[in-house]
Amino acid sequence: MNAEAQEFLGTFISESYYFYASVFMLLIHAGFLAYEGGASRTKNVLATMVKNLLTLSSVGLAFFFFGWWVYNAFPLFPVSGGILGPWTTATNDTIKAAMAVVETSYPWSPALAPNTADHLTGVFFFAFALFAMTTASILSGALIERVKIGAYIIMSIILGSFTWVVAAAWGWNPFGWFYTAFGYHDFGCSAVVHGVSGFFTLGVLLNLGPRIGKYDERGNPKPILPHNLPLTMVGLMLIFVGFYAFLAACLIFLPGYTRETTIYGTPMTLASIGVNTTLALASGIIGAYISSKADPFFTISGGLAGIISVGAGMDLYHPTVVIVLAFFGAFLMPKVALFIERIGIDDAVGAFGVHGFCGLLGSLAVGVLATGYPQGEGVPVTGFIGQLVPTLICVIILGFIPGYTTSWLLKKLHLLRVPRDEEIAGLDIADLGVEGYPEYSMNWATSTVTIQNRAEAVTGRLEPQPGMQD
Amino acid sequence: MSSPFSNPKEFLEAEGPIYTFGNNPSIITFLLIVSSILFLWFIYASYKIKSGKLPAKNPVALSLLIVASALSLAGTAYNSTVDKIHQPARRESRVISSKKQQWQLPMTLIGMVASGSLLQRRTKNRQRKRIKTTNRNQHEL
Known about the structure:
Distance between the termini of chain A: 74 Å
Low-confidence stretches of chain B: 54-58, 81-123
Low-confidence stretches of chain A: 461-470
Strand content of chain A: under 5%
Order of helices and strands of chain B: HHHH
Membrane topology (chain A): Multi-pass membrane protein
Shape of chain A: globular
Mean pLDDT of chain A: 93
Organism (chain A): Chroogloeocystis siderophila 5.2 s.c.1
Number of helices of chain A: 16
Helix content of chain B: over 70%
InterPro entries (chain A): Ammonium/urea_transptr, NH4_transpt_AmtB-like_dom
Oligomer: heterodimer
Radius of gyration of chain A: 24 Å
Number of domains of chain A: 1
CATH architecture of chain A: Orthogonal Bundle
Shape of chain B: rod-shaped
CATH superfamily of chain A: Ammonium transporter AmtB like domains
CATH topology of chain A: Ammonium transporter fold
Number of strands of chain B: 0
Order of helices and strands of chain A: HHHHHHHHHHHHHHHH
Largest sheet of chain B: none
Distance between the termini of chain B: 85 Å
Radius of gyration of chain B: 26 Å
Structural class of chain B: mainly alpha
Number of strands of chain A: 0
Mean pLDDT of chain B: 64
Pfam family, one (chain A): Ammonium_transp
Strand content of chain B: under 5%
Helix content of chain A: 55-70%
Protein name (chain A): Ammonium transporter
């Protein structure tokens, strides 16, 4: 094989790796679709699933229009530079290096179009667009059965294509000031994705209010059960599969590289992701199972809670650290979710407990369990304060405040929540004009008639018909 | 500090382990023990928890049985390791015998489970036979 062919092979392997990792990440969305659809009531199942599909569209396009540019343009702002764009003049080496990437991220850039000179910008865009969609999907589950589709689309664009992307630019970009100024380390996006989206969701839920019937007259929560718990469980299994791909896509391997690195340029192995994700999943399920006393919904969510709790330091943790930390995070998750419910916040799928709380925990844990790691020349070592300050910025400034403010504005404009009669009738009919299970109601009617017939046959008012005996 | 590295060059060019507490095996051992306890707790809880309620059975005896079994297995593993360390001259034969032991251990466990179930079956069969005989006798009478 000649040198040119070898060089191309390196490019093709990188291109293929990120392409297929991103395709597998789409399983997260198949999972969210099933998970949230199963968690809703029958009258809302289609609307819930369609809302999920629309996330792909709204965030996918918005990420092309400005999200990808935000990721590359915001790393220096506001600490060591401005927002980078066509107006920027490169004055030092850092800005010159950053600008080379910024110029490939404009929607009109030839790097994103079919271009034999650039195989990699497009697959990185694809991978990041999938990260963005995942982040926005975390919001969708918590709001089911009462949010207007338009309001959800606006909020998903703000979260998925802007606030999360700013967090990633600051905390997950090699030029980002969380990293360069604090030594922040968040390999699997515990705070950058999950912390931001979990706290954004909390802010929205405060303005959205609970579903009708969720609380009694005294304010005590009443259970609104999922209409299809098995579907919900299958959905979470798909999310787990997608998560392996999500974490694998956090690895950097480019043509000419002689080793795998994190996005911060530190060494890592794909094998450690395989081991640690598996252990976090297993340990998380156990933690939630024990803590929730075998509640099926919390038990399976525990797998996700475990992975998120260890995500930030997964490239560094020894497997025993992963087992203990994932157990701890998943053990506390049901308690957090129930506390949130008790104080009057109706989070339909426990998104804050899983993503907000475990994301916060996972990011802070690096400051305790992986402290003292040197990263790059001139970059501070990992430590608790270096994790705490950026994490708080992620969850409060980029998560809670934008979520609360956006939903408050939509509420004031009467654009946030569906009218009461639509909520009672169900959003499938109100929004889409069709039922998710048209035969279901017929079966229900038939079985009601059968029961009535049986009752009448027993009392002697009706001759028993064939098939009534069973 | 949980990092085994003191400067960026050492970490960025590391060949070999890079994991947390890599320079402190006692913490890894401690965490391994904690992990094992969590796992045993899970097995114990899987008997104990039923729809959020405690069953009337006594789970303490069961948990003691599980812990005793785990300790006995750990003891076997430890003894074989100690033998290997203290008898380097007979290393080859020891490796063969320990391989044999490793191969034999699961087989022994399977054998124990199988014989246990066989005994149970025999007991059940005897009970069935007894019931059949009693019924026959009753019919004959």
